[in-house]
């Protein structure tokens, strides 16, 4: 079903997360609209992973509200993918089976998803023996196979070599699809990803949220984030990261 564009897929209002004495997030207002590609940037410990976990419902806010359509499919890609000690194909198929797809159909869909990420040839290889980049792609295939409306990715390319990084980035761009979906193509996947790589943010994001000590101190269209005036801390961060 097409969603009206203005209707947010996820809406956070005044969200705070506390871990004991640590205020991981404070006063976050964030609406994620269909088709957006939101990059979360900020220093280590600024709250990016925590925010992704809140968006995925893995962490409940200690204050504020999170609204999400309960029927909406979401998938999250963690920085270090968890691979079960079985074939790549079974790793993907199991995720589908857990969602209720019968096993034979799940195996077939898993193979199609691996083909999509260019890993058909290693479908039967034990996933634990795959390289880090290959595992990341299997994890992406697994997330994509679930046909999520929203895909959350925590530093999806942080541990990859330049070649694998380009491949995973290309895949993310493909999965997100064109801004205006072609006929029959279905709506693009909405993405929220964290990254320390500002080049990647420029290439993939439509919008950038800059976090500092748990607060979203800038939330701008990607062009404005890189070209417009920024709060001082965000400006220094961008300057430091770009060098
Ligand atoms: N499970 C937890 N228990 C206690 N403190 C936590 C927990 N998870 C995160 N924190 C703290 O919350 C703050 C935000 O952490 P978070 O992992 O969200 O940052 P981040 O922006 O993802 O950092 P990085 O760039 O290093 O991945 C940090 O101070 C961190 O130490
Ligand atoms: Mg993190």
From TrEMBL:
<dbReference type="InterPro" id="IPR027417">
    <property type="entry name" value="P-loop_NTPase"/>
</dbReference>
<feature type="domain" description="ABC transporter">
    <location>
        <begin position="10"/>
        <end position="238"/>
    </location>
</feature>
<keyword id="KW-0547">Nucleotide-binding</keyword>
<keyword id="KW-0472">Membrane</keyword>
<protein>
    <submittedName>
        <fullName>Tungstate transport system ATP-binding protein</fullName>
    </submittedName>
</protein>
<dbReference type="InterPro" id="IPR017871">
    <property type="entry name" value="ABC_transporter-like_CS"/>
</dbReference>
<dbReference type="InterPro" id="IPR050166">
    <property type="entry name" value="ABC_transporter_ATP-bind"/>
</dbReference>
<keyword id="KW-0067">ATP-binding</keyword>
<dbReference type="GO" id="GO:0016887">
    <property type="term" value="F:ATP hydrolysis activity"/>
</dbReference>
<dbReference type="InterPro" id="IPR003439">
    <property type="entry name" value="ABC_transporter-like_ATP-bd"/>
</dbReference>
<keyword id="KW-1003">Cell membrane</keyword>
<dbReference type="GO" id="GO:0005524">
    <property type="term" value="F:ATP binding"/>
</dbReference>
<dbReference type="InterPro" id="IPR003593">
    <property type="entry name" value="AAA+_ATPase"/>
</dbReference>
<keyword id="KW-0813">Transport</keyword>
<dbReference type="Pfam" id="PF00005">
    <property type="entry name" value="ABC_tran"/>
</dbReference>
<comment type="similarity">
    <text>Belongs to the ABC transporter superfamily.</text>
</comment>
């Amino acid at each position: 079903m097409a969603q009206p564009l203005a209707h947010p897929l996820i809406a956070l209002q005044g969200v705070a997360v506390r871990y004991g004495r640590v205020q991981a997030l404070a006063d976050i207002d964030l609406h994620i609209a269909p088709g957006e590609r939101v990059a979360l940037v900020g220093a280590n410990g600024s709250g990016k992973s925590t925010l992704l976990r809140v968006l995925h419902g893995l962490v409940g806010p200690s204050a504020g509200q999170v609204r999400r359509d309960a029927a909406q499919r979401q998938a999250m890609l963690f920085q270090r993918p968890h691979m079960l000690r079985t074939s790549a194909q079974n790793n993907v198929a199991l995720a589908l089976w857990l969602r209720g797809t019968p096993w034979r159909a799940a195996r077939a869909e898993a193979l199609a998803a691996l083909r999509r990420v260019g890993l058909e040839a290693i479908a039967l290889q034990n996933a634990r023996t795959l390289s880090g980049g290959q595992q990341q792609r299997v994890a992406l295939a697994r997330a994509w196979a679930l046909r999520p409306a929203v895909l959350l990715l925590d530093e999806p390319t942080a541990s990859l070599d330049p070649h694998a990084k380009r491949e995973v980035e290309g895949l993310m761009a493909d999965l997100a699809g064109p801004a205006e979906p072609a006929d029959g193509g279905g709506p693009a996947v909405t993405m929220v990803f964290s990254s320390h790589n500002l080049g990647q943010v420029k290439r993939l994001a439509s919008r950038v949220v800059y976090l500092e000590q748990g607060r979203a101190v800038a939330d701008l269209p990607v062009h404005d984030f890189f070209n417009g005036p920024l709060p001082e801390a965000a400006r220094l961060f961008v300057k430091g990261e770009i060098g």
